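#lab-general

N.A. 3:47 PM
ok so I finally got the sequence cleaned up, no stray characters, all 275 residues accounted for. can someone with queue access submit it? mine expired

B.Y. 3:52 PM
send it over

N.A. 3:53 PM
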Amino acid sequence: MIRPEVLDYYRRGGERVRLETGAANRLEYLRTWDLLTRVLPPAPARIIDVGGATGVYARPLADAGYRVRLVDPVPEHVAAAAGIAGVTAVLGDARELPAEDRDADAVLLLGPLYHLPDRADRLRVWREAARVARPGAPVVAATISRFASLFDGFVKGFAADARFRRMVERTLADGLHRNPDDQAQWFTTAYFHHPTEIPGEVTEAGLALERIVSVESPLWMSGPHLDEILADPEHTARMLDALRRVEDEPSLLGASSHLLTVARPGPVPPPANPT
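B.Y. 4:20 PM
back already:
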């Protein structure tokens, strides 16, 4: 269901508090939540939160009156999320969702796509989301930018390590992120999308692409200045308003650490002609 090194990474527990600590992580949360509030149907719509971890988004969604079913491959995540009022949490694989056809008013894919190096597996995830989503329902998916580790290495000082630099070179070449020797401070096995790849995956899976937006924008690299912005509610509000205005500017997509794609069930494309 999940690669051993990925399971080990999440069993260390970092995802429980990641989006609460560090300015860039808090910006990721605020921007993701901001987009969700704009694209999700009104509560009490039924949401399937695929790869929802410990319920960082499921909790506020349930608090807002949504009916949330969280699916995650990490047993510890499911156990934690199951304790949230209004959330049903089950163990499952994004490539084969434990859900009926057209069962959801919205599907969130905020975790699984960037842990599947094989394109065929990613297409299965998109197709499963299309299967369980009701007609017109939004499918909101998170991906990591192809250039995230390149920038992150200089922001956090990892670029001084030759092993990190070799890892980045591989990622830049083909999107595959392989953590050598399972370095705890570096991200685990993943696939980092080039922004231009996403439309092809969405369309091939039978979904209609609505938009691709940058989450953090280049602001995630602004260091202590971002802490200062987030410490001031009025400044934070101004920042979020400004980022909404440029969130789907194509020239900024690759500079964001994360991207969010909004798609909806559409006509299934015909099979390719045999060659």
